[in-house]
Amino acid sequence: MPLSTTRSPAPTSTCLPGTAPGDVTAGLDWATADHAVAIVDGRGTVAEQFLVEATGAGLRELVRRLCRAGVGEIAIERADGQVVDTLLEAGLTVVVISPNRVHNLRSRNGSAGNKDDRFDAFVLADTLRTDRARLRPLIPDTAATVQLRSAVRAPALTAPRE
Fold first, then answer.
1. Which domain holds residue 72?
2. Which of 42, 44, 106, 151 could be joined to 111 by an S-S link, Cβ 3.0–4.6 Å?
């Protein structure tokens, strides 16, 4: 069940628009206990930074805060999992930026390269703002693909190993 009924369906295009909807982008650096989030405006200024718990309630809070800030696109380092599923169900455009790329981009934004979740969330959001032509939105699997993947995995999970 979608968490937000006011958003458009997840993207089906392989290109991002020239500017972000609402002139804001977000980045999320996920972790086991909590997720760091940064929202930046069209000039790259941090509009908001916060942490949400890595729970169902935390994800619902995340979607509420992103919607309230007018975010339509969010960058993240993973292409799968409950966080991505929740963001897609909320109608947000999800853009995956690899952890190696984020590591390399830290110096562009003034970090010495040390891992910092809040700073990485900013790097993700700002990279989504500045490098749009090089990035592609995550296209969710169709219902048929999900069903096929489930059917293919089921025998492999239940078959005895020899």
1. 21-158
2. 106
